[in-house]
Write a structure and sequence with these properties.
By secondary structure, the protein is an alpha+beta fold. Helix content is about 45%, strand content about 10%.
C-alpha cells in the first residue's frame, strides 16, 4: 500500500465532515463504509459536491457478505475484496479502484465504522481521474451530438428523473391558449433543475452553457409536438399575414427592398439553407440554421464583390438587414413568425450578446422591415385573415404611404430605419413625434424639426462592424410585431 496521508487534511474528508455534517452523522450512526479519494486524486477537483460525497458512502448489503450498497438510496453497489473495490452496479464505469489504507473511526455511541482511502474518485476511469479541460463547442453540435454529450455527463438516475419530468409534462400539463409564457416557465424550471444536478455532479471543466444547451435541446425535442402547436395557435393571425406578404411578393427583387446595387446578387444558396429551418425541433438547431444562412449571405455577397473587383467594400449592419429580408421572402416559410417566436421564448441564447443572439435580433429586424415595406396593403378584413392582429391595428392607425417600386436606394434605406424609429439619439437620429402626416415617420438629425428648411434625409453611416458591434447596435432597436 502507498504511504498513508492524514485524512484530517484530505479535501474530501474535510468537506464530508464540515460541509455535509448531517449526512456524515447519519452515515456514522449506520456504521457505513466511507471511501475517501486520495489527495492526489482530488488535485483537479475544485468543488466537492453532495452527489460526489453520496457516491462514496456505502452501507453493508443485507444479502451478500463483502457487498455494500449506496447509503443515499441510489441503485449503486460495490464489492470489497482485500485491497480492491469493484464497482458492480449503478456506475458509469464499472472497474476496480485500489484501497491505499484504512482507518477505524467511532460514532457517538462508540461504534466503529471503516474509512478507506482509495487511489481515485469512484465512477471515473483511471485516465479520466483528472477533470477534462477540452473546449465544448455546444453551439455548433448537432442534435445527436448534444444528446450524446448529455448522456455522457449525466448519471442514469439523472436521466431517469429528467425523462419522468418530460413524461409528466407531455401527459398532464394543460397549455392554455394565450399563456405560452407559462409553458416557457414550466419547461425552464425542468431544464434549470437538470442543469443544477449536472453541475453538482460534474468533475469536469464543462461550462454551464454547454449543459444548458444540451438539456434544452433534449427537453424541447421531446416536448416539441405538444408545445409548438400551441405557439402556432398563438401566432395564427401573424402567420396568415406573413403568408400573404410572401405570396404577394414572390418575385420581389433586391432593389425593391433597398439592397445596394453592388450587393445585389443571387442568394439562392442562402434561401435553400433557411428553408431547412422547419425540419428542426429545438432552438439550438434553429440557431445553427440562422447562423449558416447569415454566413452564406455574407459569403455570396463577398464573392460577388470580388468578381466586380470591389473587394474593399464591406457589408455593414445597414446592408445585412435588406439582404436577410430578401432571403426571408424568397424562402416563403409560411409559419415563420411562429418559429421565430419559438426561438425567442424557449432558446437560452435568445437575449444574449452572442453570435446566436445577434443572428436572432437581425432576423427580427428583417421581419419588421418586411412588414413595414411589403405589408402596407394588407386588408385586415380579408377573408383569409379572420381577425385583426395588434400589428394590423397599429398599421391602420398610421398615415398610409404608397409603396413606390421605383423609389431610390436612399428612400428604401430610410424605410428600414422607420421600422426602428427609437434608435438612440446618441446614434445621431431621433423621431419627430409632432410632425405632419407626410413626414410623421421621417428620421431627423438631432436638433432639427419637421419644419426645418433642410430637406435632405441623411443616411446612417454604415461602418463595418464586428458581431459585438452589430449586436450592440441592433439591441437598441424596437424589434417586435
Amino acid at each position: 500500500m502507498a504511504e498513508e496521508e492524514d485524512l484530517e487534511d484530505n479535501p474530501f474528508f474535510i468537506a464530508l465532515s464540515q460541509k455535509f455534517v448531517k449526512f456524515y452523522n447519519q452515515a456514522q450512526d449506520a456504521r457505513c463504509l466511507v471511501c475517501v479519494p486520495s489527495t492526489d486524486a482530488l488535485q483537479s477537483v475544485s468543488n466537492i459536491t453532495q452527489q460526489m460525497v453520496e457516491t462514496h458512502v456505502f452501507k453493508p448489503s443485507p444479502y451478500f457478505q463483502g457487498q455494500f450498497v449506496s447509503f443515499a438510496g441510489k441503485e449503486r453497489a460495490i464489492n470489497v475484496n482485500g485491497n480492491k473495490i469493484e464497482c458492480t452496479q449503478g456506475f458509469t464505469h464499472r472497474d476496480e479502484v485500489e484501497i491505499l489504507f484504512e482507518e477505524l473511526f467511532y460514532n457517538g455511541r462508540y461504534e466503529s465504522f471503516r474509512v478507506v482511502c482509495v487511489d481515485r474518485i469512484l465512477n471515473t476511469k483511471a485516465q479520466d481521474s483528472k477533470k477534462s479541460t477540452a473546449t465544448v463547442n455546444s453551439g455548433q453540435m448537432t442534435q445527436d451530438e448534444l444528446k450524446n454529450f448529455l448522456f455522457t455527463h449525466a448519471t442514469p438516475e439523472q436521466l431517469q428523473g429528467l425523462d419522468s419530468d418530460i413524461t409528466a409534462f407531455n401527459s398532464s400539463y394543460v397549455i392554455v391558449p394565450g399563456y405560452i409564457s407559462d409553458v416557457q416557465t414550466k419547461l425552464q424550471t425542468i431544464c434549470e433543475s437538470m442543469v443544477q444536478r449536472l453541475e453538482l455532479s460534474s468533475d469536469t471543466d464543462v461550462p454551464k452553457a454547454a449543459f444548458e444547451i444540451a438539456v434544452e435541446t433534449y427537453v424541447l425535442d421531446r416536448t416539441f409536438d405538444k408545445v409548438f402547436p400551441a405557439v402556432l395557435l398563438d401566432y395564427k393571425i401573424e402567420s396568415k399575414i406573413w403568408k400573404r406578404i410572401v405570396n404577394d411578393n414572390e418575385k420581389v427583387t433586391g432593389a425593391q427592398l433597398g439592397v445596394q446595387k453592388a450587393f445585389d446578387c443571387s442568394l439562392e444558396r442562402a434561401v435553400l439553407c433557411l428553408q431547412g429551418l422547419p425540419t428542426m425541433r429545438a432552438p439550438s438547431q434553429m440557431h445553427i440554421c440562422l447562423k449558416a444562412t447569415v454566413e452564406t449571405i455574407t459569403s455570396l455577397v463577398t464573392a460577388h464583390l470580388k468578381r466586380q473587383r470591389k473587394g474593399d467594400i464591406a457589408i455593414a449592419t445597414d446592408d445585412l438587414i435588406p439582404l436577410l429580408a430578401l432571403v426571408l421572402v424568397q424562402a416563403r416559410i409560411e409559419n415563420f413568425p411562429a418559429y421565430l417566436s419559438f426561438m425567442e421564448k424557449f432558446g437560452v441564447s435568445a437575449g444574449s450578446v452572442t453570435e446566436e443572439g445577434f443572428n436572432l435580433v437581425s432576423t427580427r429586424a428583417a421581419v419588421t422591415f418586411i412588414k413595414s415595406e411589403l405589408g402596407k396593403g394588407i386588408d385586415a378584413n380579408h377573408p383569409d385573415i379572420s381577425a385583426a392582429s395588434p400589428d394590423v391595428v397599429r398599421r391602420k392607425s398610421s398615415p398610409a404611404r404608397v409603396y413606390d417600386r421605383n423609389s431610390d436606394l436612399v428612400d428604401k434605406r430610410q424605410g428600414f430605419r422607420r421600422a426602428h424609429s427609437n434608435v438612440s439619439a446618441e446614434g445621431g437620429y431621433t423621431s419627430s413625434a409632432h410632425s405632419s402626416p407626410e413626414t410623421s415617420h421621417r428620421l431627423l438629425p438631432p436638433g432639427s424639426s419637421a419644419n426645418s428648411n433642410k430637406k435632405e434625409e441623411k443616411v446612417l453611416p454604415g461602418a463595418t462592424a464586428t458581431v459585438e458591434d452589430m449586436g450592440g447596435f441592433l439591441s437598441k432597436l424596437a424589434l417586435g410585431y
